[in-house]
Every structure is written in C-alpha cells, then in structure tokens.
Design goal:
Blueprint lengths: L17 H7 L3 H18 L6 E5 L5 H7 L5 E6 L2 H10 L5 E5 L12 E7 L7 H14 E12 L5 H11 L16 H10 L2 E9 L3 H4 L4 H13 L7 E8 L1
Parallel strand pairs: 1-2, 1-4, 2-3, 4-5
Antiparallel strand pairs: 5-7, 6-7
Helix pairs in contact: 1-2
Length: 246
C-alpha cells in the first residue's frame, strides 16, 4: 500500500463529542438512528462475561460504554481523533473500559488478544486497500472463533441520495469525500471479510423508514423498526454484518 492509499484521518475535524451529541441531543431521527444501531450491533456482537473486546473507531465512546456495561467484559476502545478519546475518557469511567488514541491500522496488540471486535461506521472512512489491511489485522487480533461486527452505509439503498441531501443541506459534517472515501453493499462487504479469513455469520440492513417516523412518535418508530427487522428488506440504509474468525 502506498502512502497515497493510506488515510490518516478525515479531511475535516469532527468534534470529540459528536457521536454522543448525535445519540442523545440530536434531532429525533438522528437520536433514533444512533441509539438503535448501537442496540443492534451490541446484540450481533454477542458479548459475554470474561470476554476481551476491542472497539475500533470508538468516537465519543458511547458504544464502548454499552459493551463495558456487560458484566465481566474488558473493553479497549481506540480512535484516531484525539479529541474523541479525550472526551470519552472524561465521560465514561469504568474500571473495565480503556480508551486509547491510535489509527485503526496501527494496532499494537498481541495476536489472539480479543474475543470480539467491533468496527462501526469506520471502514467507509478509509481506502479499500487500507480496509483490507485493517481486516487482516483484525484476523490476527481475534482469537480463533472470535467475532467481528462491521457496520457501514449500504450503497445498495437510498443512502447515496440521503448522504448527498444531508451534505447539501449542511445538516451534518460533510460526508462525501471529506469523511467517506469507500462504499460497500452486502455482497462486497461479505467478499472482503471472506478474503481476509472470516466466515459470514449474519447480515442485517437497518433503517428503511423507521428513523423518520421518530419525528412524530418514538414509540411508533420503534414499532416500525421491529417490523422492518421481522421482514428483512435489503434496501435498509445501514448495513451490519457479523463474521467469525476462522
């Protein structure tokens, strides 16, 4: 991989508290989106007592704190944004939760250190070859039979149009080009995992319409989300896949 293919961070500075604010103080659709995706990803991660967990691209630390709330876990959370890890260290204080500043492809841990790794909305921020190298690193860091959960916008949905609209309306920090430089859909993400030594366990696509209903009613949005989950629709705007390390 050449230096031009290796991305060291987003082209714009994201505030350290951004994900926390989005999850708990943003608009109703934004809060619903973040809180619900964290719940789904935690379920798919399948964390149990005594598990060592690595959360890569932890942002403000919200998801890492949710994982650390599971009794007996030991959680290490890393992010390339120093403001984010500083915020998380101050906001979330658990004896079993450690935040570290670092880039996703510079993870200096021993092989087979972790039973679980989460990488939520990170892989679209790095170039494809860099993403491939990162997954190889995850394979090394996971113990045999360990599980990896990845989430990313689903490019086989209306996400590209949604991202374009959000960027033009300046409702969120600019994503296209400034943050997002790669795109995935269920088949391409599965292929990437299988090419780097993983076996696909499950695929879910979230958020067809449910976040927008939160503008009117959180309860009805949750009900629609459950309906969308019970009747899987491949056009959900957020893609989540879980993999087993083989």
């Amino acid at each position: 991989m050449t230096s031009s293919e290796r991305r060291l961070g987003d082209a714009i500075q994201i505030p350290g508290n951004y994900q926390f604010q989005a999850a708990f103080a943003g608009s109703a659709p934004q809060r619903f989106w973040h809180q619900t995706r964290f719940e789904v990803c935690l379920e798919m991660l399948g964390v149990g007592p005594s598990m060592r967990v690595l959360d890569v691209g932890c942002g403000s630390g919200v998801f890492a704190d949710m994982v650390a709330a599971v009794d007996g876990t030991v959680v290490t959370a890393v992010d390339g944004n120093r403001e984010a890890t500083s915020f998380a260290q101050q906001k979330f204080r658990r004896s079993n939760l450690n935040f570290r500043h670092g880039l996703v492809d510079e993870l200096a841990f021993e092989s087979s250190t972790f039973e679980r790794i989460s990488c939520l909305e990170v892989i679209e921020h790095i170039h494809p070859e860099q993403g491939r190298a990162v997954l190889r690193t995850f394979h090394r860091l996971l113990a045999p039979g360990g599980r990896l959960v990845i989430s990313t916008p689903n490019m086989r949905s209306y996400w590209p149009a949604l991202e374009w609209s959000l960027d033009r309306l300046r409702l969120v920090p600019t994503m296209d080009g400034e943050q997002h430089v790669a795109g995935y859909h269920p088949r391409s993400l599965r292929a990437l995992g299988e090419q780097t030594g993983f076996r696909l366990l499950s695929t879910r696509t979230l958020f067809v319409l449910s976040p927008w209903l939160a503008l009117a009613s959180w309860r009805l949005a949750k009900a629609l989300h459950r309906l969308e989950e019970a009747n899987p629709f491949p056009m959900g705007t957020l893609l989540v896949q879980s993999f087993e390390r083989v």
